[in-house]
Structures are given as structure tokens and as C-alpha cells.
Amino acid sequence: MMSGTEPSSPSSARTSKGLMTRRSSKPSLFSDGLVFAGGAGVALLVFWVVSSFFSRVTVVDPSAFPFSVSSSAAFPDLHDRDPPGATFYDDPSVSYTIDRSLTHWDAKRRDWIRLHPAFGGYGRERVLMVTGSQPGPCRNPVGDHLLLRFFKNKVDYCRRHGIELFYNNALLHPVMNTFWAKLPMVRAAMLAHPEADWVWWVDSDAAFTDMDFELPLDRYRDHNLVVHGWPHLVYETRSWVSLNAGVFLIRNCQWSLDFMAVWAAMGPMSPDYYRWGQLQKAEFKDKVFNESDDQSALVYLLLKHKDRWGDKIFLESDYYFEGYWLEIVGRLENMTAKYAAVERQVQGLRRRHAEVANGAYGRLRDGHLSGEDGAVSGPNGWRRPFVTHFTGCQPCSGDHNKMYSGESCWEGMQRALHFADDQVLRDYGFRHADLLSGDVQPLPFDYPSTA
Amino acid sequence: MMSGTEPSSPSSARTSKGLMTRRSSKPSLFSDGLVFAGGAGVALLVFWVVSSFFSRVTVVDPSAFPFSVSSSAAFPDLHDRDPPGATFYDDPSVSYTIDRSLTHWDAKRRDWIRLHPAFGGYGRERVLMVTGSQPGPCRNPVGDHLLLRFFKNKVDYCRRHGIELFYNNALLHPVMNTFWAKLPMVRAAMLAHPEADWVWWVDSDAAFTDMDFELPLDRYRDHNLVVHGWPHLVYETRSWVSLNAGVFLIRNCQWSLDFMAVWAAMGPMSPDYYRWGQLQKAEFKDKVFNESDDQSALVYLLLKHKDRWGDKIFLESDYYFEGYWLEIVGRLENMTAKYAAVERQVQGLRRRHAEVANGAYGRLRDGHLSGEDGAVSGPNGWRRPFVTHFTGCQPCSGDHNKMYSGESCWEGMQRALHFADDQVLRDYGFRHADLLSGDVQPLPFDYPSTA
After folding, report:
1. Which residues does the annotated region (Disordered) include (chains A, B) (predicted)?
2. Which of B259, B187, B177, B193 is nearest to B226 (CA)?
3. What is the value of ipTM here, to two decimals?
4. A88: DSSP letter
């Protein structure tokens, strides 16, 4: 701090109201102190805004300290205490259930976040993954074993990416079962997690096979629902498999509540359920079963009510937002070999690191892959598929589509799950002996540069 | 910012070296600017230290912004990039495997944290939960179904408490199987997670039945290993069930690595494995099987080498750090009724809230319970048990201890898992019809005050 400013001489000035203001001869240390405090205040404010913009959720548990700290502008909501101000939770008309309509959800969420500023996000969007399975044991003797492993796979992905995960095995609406059960779950999850910007439904038979890839959320900033699909198959071919409803990303907002209400109204809870089945069967020449299903319902809504819903639904096909297992599982060994070849050229990629440091290594790898021929998504490239979905395999019931054998489904799942697990286990020092084997071996130092 | 300080008059001073320093007549805005900047710098430094003390992990993903931000004193490690400075990971002699010794681990961890200050913690300890099961399907037809549900239970607990969870189903050492498999897993996890202060091993057949309770970590500040146990049963009765090794908390430090090496050396990987089995059988009159097991080994180490290890091992019995299911599952309905009675008296406890706000409600409930007669842990109280462990039920193999029937194990697990799920589902608007039922019902507003 500079010293040496001379004390200011007293002066006075006349204001428009005739009041005399007198500049007293305060010591310069006091004025320096005020300037210092002003700098401190502005810096804290700027730092708080900037770091909130950059940071993920910082949840502080006040049990970490024995005294209570009151909130102030510079310390955003250090407690996870619930402030007394009323939120939508205190409104009896607000319901978690899919059959009850809910309005002004965007404002309700915003008000909740205002009272819980630690969850404000400021540019970084929060994603809640939701998945689940039936309440009781699977009919397929190895069904629950497979569900357990697919669940572990999701837990691994979410841990690596700071995504919260909710696995539900309760039927939240007595007649909305099988594939319809996801809609009541997503509705309840949106209300339970107002801090979540997106809910990401992932079927129990879908696995993450690129553990580094992250959703390009900014790509979807003008949309509210993302599914893997192809517009020409929807609007021209009119196929019930023109998109896949087993993996979707849906924004936590009023549009989504309204959409899900319309979507669910084509399901078993609706008095028109049978009629919808007939309408879908008539519309989609390739649909083979009679009952209304959630996927056909979604395509139907796009076809018949494009103006109402279509502009907010993103049909993603640039990467495996959801990948068909049959075109993937045979290519996994080749991918491993190609990735290893890249890593042999770049010491930085072979460097061991903490699991929490994965983001940096994933981006480094991504940068090196970008220069490689063929390192693209899709059936003609060797880029790791983001999600591999075992559609038609029905691991829980065992009633797989007749075009696959139970053996090919089982083998495909082993490959995909071990392929993913290798990416995870690497940070724990191990890998599978081969993609069909449950056995693992310690990784040599500087893997994969040695043998 | 105060204005009005007069420009300082030029002055000069002679330094001891005879150099003239001239105070130039800079404008006072410049000197104010320096004072302002000084205030800003000090404020940022203080805020950084204080908020690091209070905050959990703040992991920032630089893909959130299009430009790269360099680290500075005021912005602690905004990237999860791995700095180029060498860490223990770059040392080929450092191994993830249990058979390789590792020294100076405390210093190695400290150095890693110094290079990754976002994970410094500063008072708030990080816990990594580790659990797992065998690579292949369970022999018991409903075994994997039960493992799936116990796994969901752990995921629910960890999500509510900001604890990371690693589920492993690979055998990391070819002969360290069954209950010995946990030691190689914990060793690998410690190295993969240097940011974790504690590793919390929880058996696959243990469930969290109090979703609010948090480990009183400060209670264990002078210890490195916590198990549920009773000193008199260890040192006087000399029973192999004087403690339970299915749930333990172990500090991520050199002591623990050394201890686990000695512990694991009584397992199948040791040439002395059979001898240890004989020694344990001779020592513990109530041990019925011949093979060396990890729990007897732990009691053995306490008995024979108390001076070497005992002072750092905490035998916890003040709460159900690990609870014996048989003395718990019959009391769960009564607990539910007692907790509901307390909640009927306190509107604040019935208030619906986001799942992320649970901490505050748990503490509020805890405060009200403290005044209630009988709201204590243990077989004579109705406090929710923290952990309910189905020792002897063997859900995966189905080879349950003959003193229990398969039915009582199954029923007990349904009760405990539904009891826990009710605490979770409450924030999603539902509860189970009863503790034996997979069916759920929507909660009425202001539950449990209405019927």
C-alpha cells in the first residue's frame, strides 16, 4: 500500500438542496482502507461469478465445521439447509405422479434455485441419469447378473463424469409397466431434482462403451429432447425403428412435462390405449406387435404433430448417442488395437494417473484421434461407440428377438461390458485377458508400449 | 471508491546504499488503483483458503469454456488437467497389486495433492466406498437379483452423501478369492484415488438402513482402521466373531498399506496359508471351518500383535457401524411407526424437499430424535440402524448358515431393502405398501400426518 498521500484539506460544497457537505480531514489510511475494502469486495464478487460459471456443484456440509456460518453475498449458500421461504414443494397441488398435470414448472424451478444458489449452475448444466428394472427377479437365470453388470457400467461412467445416478426398481404407476415405466420415473425424478437441467434416461440393457466421451450439451441448447434417430426414416420411411426411445435426454422444463403427459397418454394408463395400438400398427408397416409402445408413440407424435413438438426434438445421428449392438460388438477388438497404436506414439497418453484426472487424458486422446484416418463414429470407423444398446436381447426376460441367438446376445454383452470395464480398470492397474474373459491381469508399466 | 485525495508532493529519500529514490508525482488514481488491487489480491487469497477449507471437490471441466485458463494463485487448479510435474504414478516401482510393497505412501499422496490442489480437502475428508461381487453369475437363482438391490441401496446412500462408489467384479489376484478378494481391491482403489482420505469397504450383502446418518469421521482422527467389534470379545472371549470384517473403514495411508500386507499374508496368496488356518482354528474355539479367513486373521493380529497395530484400530460398538440382521429386521415396522410419530409433531420434518436438501432435514430429525425416549442405536432402541448386514445368509451362493432358513434370510432382506428404499423414495413421492411388498403408492401431501 502506498503511503505518503497528504491529508486532504477541508473543503465544503453546496448541494442542490442547500445542504452543506463537509469533507472532513480523515487520515489517508482510512481512505486507503476504504479503497482496499472496495477492491476486496469487487474482487470477491467477480471471483464468485466467474468461479460459479466454471464450477460444478459445490455442496458444502456444515457438519464439517462446528459453528454455523451465515450466508453472505460473497459465500453462496454454504449450507445445504432448506431456507424457510416457500417453494413448489409446499404447494399441495404439485404432484410427483405422471397423471397429475403441473404448470409453471420453469418458474417453480427458477424460484427453487434462487433459494438454493449453490445449485445455480451458471452455465454448467447438471445431468441426472435415470435407469431401472423390474421389482422382482428376472425370468432369465442370468438376467439379473447382466442387469447388475450394466448397472455397474453406468455407475462407472457417472463416477468418472460427476453425473448423479438414480436406479429405480419400483413401478411408480400400477399399469405403466415395461417400457412405459420410464415416464413416471422421469417425471418423479424431475421434481425430486429441480437442480438438474437434464434427465438422461438410459435403458437397463444399454452400456457406456466410451468412458471418456461427454454429451455435447451445447449442441442441444435449442432443444428439449434428444434421441438417436434419422429424419428420413421418420418422415419418409415412417418406420417404428426410425429412432430409439431406450436412451433419451430430456430437459427439466415445462415443455417436457407437457410432452411426457401427451406421450404417456398413449400408454396403458390411458382409456385410449388400445386405440393407440391400432393407430400405430396402421401407421408403421414394420411394427409387428399390436400394443401401443413408447417408441412408436414418439415417432407417431413427430409424424402427426411435428409443428407442436418437432422443433424441440433433436434426432441425433452424428455419434452413437445410442448404438445398435449388432453393428458394434464385432469391431471392438479392432478398436482396442487402433487406440493402442495411437497410444504407443504418445507417451503422455500412456502416463498413469488418478481416476479423477481422467478428463484431461480423455481430451488429450481425443485430440490425437482427430488426426487419425478412420477414427470416426459409426459402422465404418473405429471410434469407440459412446453407448452400445442391446435392443432385442431382453436380458431380463430372456425373450430375445428370434433373429438373434441367446448366445450371440450373451457374447455381445460380454464383449461390450469387458471393453468398457477395461477403460475403467486401467486406472486401477488391470485389464481383461480378452473381451470374452472375466479374468483380469495387472497392466505392465507404460502400457500399452510393452507387448 | 473515495475520491478527493490530493496529489502527493514530490519528495525524495536517501536509502542506505545511497541511491536516491524519488517519489514521482503519480496521479492519486494510480495509487488508489494499487491499493484497490492490493485489496483485491488479499481478498482473493483469503477467500480461496477459506472456501477450500469449506468446500468439497470442485472439479472443473474446461470443455465448459472455449479458451484455456492458466492457473494462478487466486484460481486453484481450475482444470482437471494433469500437471507435467512427476507423481508417484510415473515411478515404475509403484504397483497397484497387493503383492508388491509400497513405501513412503503418505509423502507420495501429499505430493500428488500438492500438484492437484482442488483435491486438497482442507479439513473435509473424502471417502471412497468400495464393494463388489464375483465375476460370474450367482449359483442362487435369486442371488444376482439380491446383489442388484444391495448395489442400488449403496448407490442411493452414496448419491445422498456425495461419496464416490466403486463396484468391482473382477478378481484382482488369482487366488485371493471370496472374502480375501477385498484386500487387493482396496489396495488398487487407494492408488487409483489418492484424493480419497478413507476407503470404506462394504460387503455386497450389507445395506444402508439409515439413509441420513453420516460416519463420525472426527471420532476416528487418531485411528486408521474402524470395524464393528467389542474389545472384551476380542481380548477375553477370543471369539472369531468379536468383530466383523465385512464392513471396514481404512485410512488411505502407509500404515494401512503395511497392515493390509500383513493381513493379506494370512490369505491364499501366502505360502503359509494352511498354517494360518490351523493357528486360527487353534486360537478361536468358536471357529468352525479350517481355512484361514480374513476376519479371524484380523482378530488374530489384534490378539498377537496388539502393540504393533492395536492402537490404530477402532472397535466401534456405539452404533450399528455394521449391524447383525437377525436382531434388526423384526424391529423395522416399529421404527417406522416411532419415526412417523415424531414427524407428526414437527411440521418442518414433513416438509417435502429436493433430494439434494436432505442433509438439513436429516439433522433436523436427528435433533428431534435426541429428545425421545428409546431413540437409541442397538437392540433395545428404535433408532434406525445405520448398516444391516446379512451375515450368514450368503445370497449369491445360497449356502446360508444352517441356523437360518433361506426364507428368513430372503424375508429379512426384503424388509431391510424396502425400509431403506422408503427413505429414498420419499423424495420421489412414493413409499412401499408394506415392508414385504415390491408395490409402491404415492405419498399423500404432508405425509405422515394424514392416515
Report:
1. 1-20
2. B259
3. 0.84
4. G
